[in-house]
Structure formats: structure tokens, C-alpha cells
Amino acid sequence: MKQLIRFTLLLILLNCHVIEAQESKPTWALLNFVKTDSINPILSPDKKQNFVCPVSTKEVNWEERNVLNPSAVVKDNKVYLIYRAQDNQMTSRLGLAVSEDGLHFKKEVEPIFYPDNDSMNQYEWKGGVEDPRVIECPDGSYFMTYTSYDGKVARLCFATSKNLKHWTKQGLVLKDEKYKDLWAKSGAVVGERKGNKIVATKINNKYWMYFGDTDLFMAYSDDLIHWQAAVNDESQKMISVLHPRMGYFDSRLVEPGPFALLQKEGIVLMYNGSNAANYNTAELPKFTYAAGQALFDKNQPYKLIDRTQNHFIHPDKPYEKTGEVNEVCFVEGLVFFKNKWLLYYGTADSKIAVAVRKQ
After folding, report:
1. What is the mean pLDDT of residues 156-165?
2. Rounded to whole angstroms, how far apart are CA atoms 29 and 307?
């Protein structure tokens, strides 16, 4: 199986070219999200959220500076939002907020996931743990990718849970020694909608994950625990499956959004893009973060089929345009809840907002 995957990837690499969307509004994409202006932003920093950090042994206001970049899961007919929060030292931890309607959330007082005196401390302190992406497993448990940051290198890691509150750290996604110090982040697993749940699904007997924050790469797994990078068989270099485009909203970088969604047309990946100072789209200020969508083959997840020409969400509200990092809409959470899609995103790296798409 591994040789077949590598052979197919090599053929694609040798014959690849950037595929541009043939229409401005492709039918496969999840479009027409409307920002819920009446309540946005739905989460803001709170200086009253206190917690004793096990590493520093000091009490910290763990989300007093920023809340941002949430993942979302439907459980027990509620929306669970797992979000990144920063203290005034810029250390990141993950908090949990729960909602009955997907719009109004109640936060847990303490973070549910954070740097600790454990085997991951060398990777997580003191930058912290960032940008979760959660998906349900076929057995009803939960799988979360996150970024560990030691202040120098961002590393793609993962954890597992049975209840979304208590997590077991499973280490680096790519455990080969050659990848240990590789800058890697933002892992989005391919999943399928089953009712109001998004469940990780196999394609050709493998689970698949898109990751990266300049170009996008892929990893695959038999069991959601042991992952291997998809590489060129000759060079052993990871194969890029999505690239920035000069002159577009994503001319500087591309980075996965929520999980990748298996649909009848193919695999739909929402992704975040940023535009460069040069080769820029004139519509947006330079370095703006806006989101687009890409379609990959449902049988060959590494094969790009189509791509939206333009973003479907971008900063146009004051809380999206000004904050810790200006001009940011960063999509990372998506649920199907009460017959509609809810998209959760970070705004200016400071707050969290929601947009709604009716079925």
C-alpha cells in the first residue's frame, strides 16, 4: 500500500500544475456563510479566568490577553468549542466553552489542555499549545491535533480523549527523527458527516491529514496513532499538495482550516490564506488572513481537482481588522448543528466569532 501511495504521489508531482477554479462559485464549495453580527464576537478575553500553572507554579490569568482559533465538536446535542487562549506572557493554553444553541457559550474556568511537567514540556514551554483541530473517531472518542511551540520551533502534535475534557498527549505526529525539529503545524484530518457529527474516515484503508502553514503536505495512518508523511519515493521529501498563488488572496501562504470534509464531489478543505507584500491582491491589505476552499479527489486525497478563485470570508469588521494581529479571519471550527453549518473563526488573533450557513 505504501509503495502504491508513493508511486501515485510521484506521478502527480511530475505532472502537477496549479489548478485554478473554473468558476467563481463552484457548486462543491460550502459558501454563503453570514457573520452573526448581532452577537459577534462570541468569545473575548477574560482576566478573571485564573489557573495555577504546573510549570511555573504561579497563578496566571490564562486568557487575559487573547482568545482565538477555535475548534468545534457536537456532543450530546451541544457545541463544544475548544479554543486557544494567551496570558500576558503570550503562553498559549486551550480552553473549553459549551453552548446549547451554538451561539452563546459558557466557558470552563480553567484550561483543559496546557504545558505541564511531562514528556512534552520540551516542546510546549513556554510558547504553549496552540490552534486545536478536533474530530470524532469511529469508536466515539476524540482526536485532536495541536501545535506545540517552545519559543523557537512549532511542531505538529496530537492528543486523544473520551470526553473532550481530559486529554492524553500522544506526542509528535511525525515521530521520525528527521522530522523532530521540522517546523510543522495545523493538522486537518479527513472526516465524513454522519448526522450532526464529523467522524474521521478512511480512504483506501488509510486515515489522511493535511498539514502545513506555507505549502500544504499530507500524512496518513492505519489507526490515527501511527502517522507517516507522504513523500516522494526517490527524494524522500514531503510532497506539497496545495501552494500559494501569486496575485491572489493566498499569495503568501496556505494553512488548513477545520477538518477536511469528504463529500460526493470530493474532499473539501477550507483553508486560510495570507497575501504577500508583493504579488498581492489589491482588494485586501497586505498580510491579510482570509479563507478559501480546495477540492481534492475522494479516492486520491493528494490530488487537487479544483480551487476557489477568491476568499469566502475576510476581515471587514472592526474586531477582525484590529487586534493582536491586524486583518485576520482565521477559520478553524466547523459543525453541522440544528440543520445548519456553523463556522467559528479567530478575529485579529484576539477574539472569536461565528458565521452561519443554512442547509
Report:
1. 98
2. 9
